[in-house]
Write a structure and sequence with these properties.
The complex is a heterodimer of chains A (about 180) and B (about 550).
Chain A (H helix, E strand, L loop, with lengths): L2 H21 L6 H5 L7 H18 L8 H11 L6 H21 L11 H35 L10 H19 L1
Helix pairs in contact in A: 1-3, 1-5, 3-4, 4-6, 5-6
Chain B lengths: L1 H13 L32 H8 L25 H15 L1 H9 L11 H6 L6 H16 L1 H6 L10 H11 L7 H5 L6 H14 L5 H13 L7 H19 L14 E4 L3 H4 L3 H15 L3 E3 L15 H18 L3 E4 L4 H13 L26 E3 H10 L15 E3 L3 H7 L3 H10 L30 H7 L1 H14 L3 E4 L2 H14 L4 E4 H8 L19
Parallel strand pairs in B: 1-2, 1-3, 3-4, 5-6, 6-7
Classes of the chains: A mainly alpha (about 180), B mainly alpha (about 550).
């Protein structure tokens, strides 16, 4: 049994788990997971569409440039939601573990786990590309703010990047937890 | 082991701070408190603005002070709770709709997934049903027998500072767009619940600057930006100069002219900010084209009414100014420009607040003879209704090819669409001024249109991420027509839209511009005696 055949057989299952995992990062995710209409459910619909597309590229070790379009579809959304950068990007990484877990559970195919190096390397490249995109989105967002300032219909402010502040909060809580344990 | 790794990854993800509140989602909603951090709230109103408004006749904005939502102590009046509960009682007695909305919700959930704030954030308190429940839980506790007897079991809870903070958080994560109300089988207007929450908060001095400063400016000089009469006039004159440079046509407009047939009122943003400027140029050209006897006013120089986002009395006062000016100038009726909430105020509230405007005449187009019976009481006709009627009667000389650079789609602005049913007139105009414009998907247009995400005074930059989240459903539908039909222009009939959709597009769909429908009309008009330059981008062309 070859790896590409296993990918074909399990594509739907892997992508499904990947989508569910990603959408579980939202506080109230039942609707995001359930509704399939992309216009009624932009977060769920876009993430489902993009992850499915991305999976197809990852398994054929496509040129990382091709990752950009589906990744952008996801990261544009997550970069302006209240996630620190690591959390915004983390779900891209999850497909590695999901794939390993699914293959390992299949007695006929568990030996294929050792052949996953190329696939996992593609995932690593996708995660790195996602960080680039995350930064581009944040920068774009600040350009939007600057443009609003220039149009004059607005009051100058000095607010900080909320995403960065969230990261500080997380570090503080990790710090506190490690002290208390 | 692989599974353990995934769990670890999940832990860092799922247990990280979640949407809006930064809380971990393991508690009952009543136990999750609102936490204010930079970026998740609009700035509090400045003390001097609140003081000024409170000093004005007929307005009530108490408890002016320096405070911050991020502080634990919001410096509320000592008897704040009494004020809130008394305020709620007064409103339950005064507004029958509020009492019904509090009582009749069966929590069916039809509205839950219809709110653009919920769709963009995934925060359950942005489900309209739960947002209303923030108030309803207090209503049950203090005003219903079931709530008094059964407490939390009946969905009741006591009013606390925590609840008040939650009100502030979520009544400013609602743009009162009323999409949810379209789906409510009982016809509950959740926007009016948000309005009540905001009214109650103002009773104890909790409000945002982006609303109260424009309100105080409007009260003082007549428009949001505080432009004084000469500045307002200069701005309109500049636009007329631009028209002359582009087309060779000198427009014959006037200000504060007594005895004009029509008073024209539009959002002030149209005369001072891009891209609204081009829409205003469209108005000037249209009126010149048909030779309308009209005047601008430098006093009623604002169609927008941010009073709607504060309280009943302020809305009434700002709306009254338009009619007082119409009376002073002795016009027959008013034509209103492309504005959003101005039309909600005019169609839903004006008549019982300041109307009926019996001193004016029922609007009748001098060019076509059409009487606008829909405006029989308010005496105010929408520029799109007026223009569509002109086109229908062949009164406009139009050349679609002058909009060849435009591949348009149309965004139904929430208030004109859902509060006054203006659905077909702008579409009719587009059919006649541009070639092959396209619709967005069915569940994102007309009555089901998605809000720009920044209405009701939320178009301030300190909450830019929040605005991008709540605007996602709209932007997502625009992206679809960009990908499918190479759309490059998002047209609309609202000044707030023109400002906020521009930012929304700059983030989600760079390269897609935003315009008012009247700009496209202006582009297409063949003016008598024109000496038009090669305008490859219509009125936006730099020459």
């Amino acid at each position: 049994m070859k790896l590409d055949e296993a990918f074909r057989n399990y594509r739907e299952k892997i992508v499904d788990q990947w989508v569910n995992y990603t959408l579980s990062t939202y506080k109230s995710s039942t609707f995001f997971k359930k509704e399939k209409d992309k216009f009624a459910n932009p977060v769920g619909g876009n993430i489902r569409e993009a992850l499915d597309c991305l999976f197809g590229l990852l398994v054929k070790n496509a040129d990382p440039q091709e990752f950009v379009a589906p990744l952008e579809q996801i990261i544009l959304i997550r970069a302006i939601q209240e996630f620190p950068a690591s959390v915004a990007v983390a779900p891209i990484h999850a497909v590695k573990h999901i794939t390993r877990e699914i293959l390992a559970k299949d007695k006929e195919r568990c030996h294929l786990v050792q052949d996953l190096y190329d696939f996992e390397f593609s995932v690593d490249l996708a995660v790195l590309a996602a960080f680039d995109l995350y930064m581009q989105c944040r920068e774009r967002l600040y350009q939007v703010r600057i443009k609003e300032i220039k149009t004059g219909a607005y009051l100058l402010t000095d607010s900080k990047c909320p995403s960065n502040l969230l990261k500080i909060n997380i570090q503080e809580s990790i710090h506190t937890n490690s002290h208390s344990s | 082991m692989a599974v353990a790794k995934l769990e670890q990854l999940a832990k860092s993800v799922v247990q990280g701070p979640t949407m809006a509140t930064g809380a971990v989602p393991v508690k009952d909603w009543m136990d999750v408190s609102a936490i204010f951090k930079p970026g998740n709230y609009a700035y509090q109103a400045k003390q001097e603005k609140v003081e000024y408004l409170n000093s004005q006749k007929g307005l009530h904005f108490p408890n002016a002070r320096e405070w911050s939502p991020e502080d634990d102590d919001w410096k509320l009046p000592e008897n704040w709770k009494e004020i809130i509960l008394k305020g709620l009682k007064e409103r339950l007695d005064k507004f029958r709709s509020l009492k019904i909305f509090m009582d009749c919700c069966v929590r069916c959930g039809a509205c839950a997934d219809k709110c653009h704030f919920f769709l963009g954030t995934g925060d359950p308190k942005n489900m309209p049903v739960l947002r209303a429940e923030l108030l309803r839980s207090i209503y049950r506790n203090d005003f219903t027998l079931g709530g008094k007897l059964l407490g939390k079991m009946a969905g009741a809870r006591e009013m606390t500072v925590g609840v008040l903070k939650e009100w502030f958080m979520y009544s400013y994560q609602c743009t009162e767009c009323r999409r949810c109300s379209v789906f409510c089988p009982y016809g509950i207007d959740t926007a009016e619940v948000t309005m009540m929450l905001r009214e109650l908060l103002h009773l104890v001095g909790v409000g945002i600057n982006w609303i109260l400063e424009p309100v105080s400016n409007s009260n003082r000089t007549g428009n949001h930006m505080g432009l004084q009469p000469h500045t307002f006039k200069d701005n309109v004159d500049f636009l007329a100069d631009d028209i002359e440079n582009l087309t060779g046509i000198k427009t014959n407009h006037s200000f504060n002219r007594k005895g004009a047939e029509v008073l024209f009122i539009t959002p002030s943003a149209d005369v001072f900010a891009e891209p609204g400027l081009y829409t205003a140029m469209g108005y000037l050209m249209l009126f010149e084209h048909i030779g309308l006897d009209y005047t601008w006013s430098t006093y009623a120089s604002e169609g927008g009414n941010f009073g709607l986002f504060t309280n009943n009395e302020t809305m009434k006062k700002l709306n009254g100014k338009m009619y007082a000016e119409a009376k002073r100038l002795g016009v027959k009726y008013i034509i209103g420009g492309e504005c959003g909430h101005m039309w909600r105020v005019v169609h839903q509230y004006m008549d019982t607040m300041n109307g009926p405007a019996d001193f004016l005449e029922v609007p009748k187009s001098p060019m076509t003879g059409t009487t606008f019976h829909n405006a029989a009481s308010t005496k105010m006709v929408h520029i799109s209704e007026f223009t569509a009627d002109l086109i229908k009667h062949g009164k406009l000389n139009l050349d679609k090819s002058r909009n060849a650079h435009v591949k348009a789609t149309f965004h139904d602005s929430c208030n004109p669409a859902r509060a006054m049913g203006l659905l077909d007139e702008p579409r009719y105009i587009l059919d006649h001024v541009v070639d092959g414009w396209v619709e967005m998907p069915e569940n994102t247009i007309r009555e089901q249109t998605f809000c720009c995400g920044s209405g009701t005074g939320l178009n301030t930059d300190e909450i830019m991420e929040l605005r991008m989240r709540s605007g996602l459903p709209r932007a997502n539908a625009v992206k679809h027509v960009i990908d499918k039909h190479a759309v490059n222009m998002l047209s609309c009939v609202c000044a707030i839209d023109r400002a906020t959709l521009t930012s929304l597009m700059n983030y989600w769909n760079p390269g897609c511009n935003v315009c008012g429908v009247s700009e496209l009309v202006g582009n297409a008009l063949i003016m008598e005696g024109e000496n038009r330059q090669e305008l490859t981008e219509g009125l936006r062309t730099l020459v």
